Structures are given as structure tokens and as C-alpha cells.
Amino acid sequence: MTSLSTTMAGHHTHCDDVFARAEAAAERADWPACEQAARQFRAAVLAHFTTEEEAIFPAFEAATGMTEGPTRVMRGEHVQMRELMSLLVEAAAAADGDGFSDAAETLLLLMQQHNMKEENILYPMCDQTVAGDPAVCRAVADLVEEGPHD
Q1: Own/partner long-range contacts of 107-114 (Cβ < 8 Å, ≥24 apart)
Q2: What are the residue ranges spanned by the domains of the chain?
Q3: 8 Å CB contact between 42 and 24
Q4: Three-class SS of residue 1?
Q5: What SS3 state is found at 94?
Q6: CATH number of the structural domain 4-145
Q7: Which of 22, 41, 81, 146 sits CB 3.0–4.6 Å from 18 for a disulfide?
Q8: pTM of whole model > 0.90?
Q9: What are the pLDDT tens digits along the chain (150 aa)?
Q10: Using CA atoms, how far apart are residues 125 and 112, in angstroms rounded to an integer?
């Protein structure tokens, strides 16, 4: 059985790949392709956040009693990323190269830091505490089974 850490990190990679497609389209000034990829990226990330916020994080908090720890930090960063993803999609839809570049640069930095914290700290803790929880397993499997949001 694949660990929660491995599965969720793999989904991070999928999201990163879709983000890279949006950036590449922006560099070519192919705004329809950029907008499509930006929307796909946002959909994939929002599905990822839903899995974490509705299944993984609550189970982790229930198992550990830690409600003011790493999950709180991650939720706060999710709020920031949601706003940046909206700006990214809006800029792509408006063919606004500067706006897209600004949103993408900030989002990339935040995502890299966020994913590192999840992959190196939170997910391994979840592997130890909630990886066997049926609701968590089902939510993670559903995220993967939905496949690429392309």
C-alpha cells in the first residue's frame, strides 16, 4: 500500500506540472491555453485542499489533539494560495502578462515552501497517526482516482 505521504506528494507533483503548463503558455503569450491550464491547476489544487481540509487534517487533529499546530498553518497558507490562484486565472483570462507573472511568482514561492512543510513534516506525522483511518484512505484514493483535472 502506498503511503499517504507518497500519494499526496505525488499529487503535489501533478499540480506543479499543470502550473508549469500555464507558465509556459504565458511565456508564449498563448492566453487561451494559459487560461485553460490555470483553471485546471486551480481545480486540481482545490481538490487537494478539500482532501486535506475535510479528511486528513480533521483526522490528524482528532488523533493528536493538535488543533493549533501544523494544520492551522497549512489552512492559513491555503487561504493565501486560493487568493493567488484567483488572481492567476483572472490575469490569464485578461491576457495580462504582468499580472500573471506577479501572481505566478508569488504563488510559486508560497507553494514550494508549503509543499516542503507538508512533505517533510505534516505528511510523515499523518502517516504515523491517520494513514489507516478509513475516511482518510477513501478521501486520498478519491483524489487520485479523479485523475488529472485536464
Answers
A1: 107/19, 107/81, 108/19, 110/77, 110/80, 110/81, 110/84, 111/15, 111/16, 111/19, 111/81, 114/74, 114/77, 114/81
A2: 4-145
A3: no
A4: coil
A5: coil
A6: 1.20.120.520
A7: 41
A8: yes
A9: 579 999 999 999 999 999 999 999 999 999 999 999 999 999 999 999 999 999 999 999 999 999 999 999 999 999 999 999 999 999 999 999 999 999 999 999 999 999 999 999 999 999 999 989 999 999 999 998 875 544
A10: 19
Which three cell numbers, joined as nine digits, stand for 61?
A: 487533529
The CA-atom distances, in angstroms, between 134 and each of 20, 21, 138 are 33, 34, 6
Place of cell 498563448: 30
- Residue in the structure block whose three cell numbers are 507553494: 111
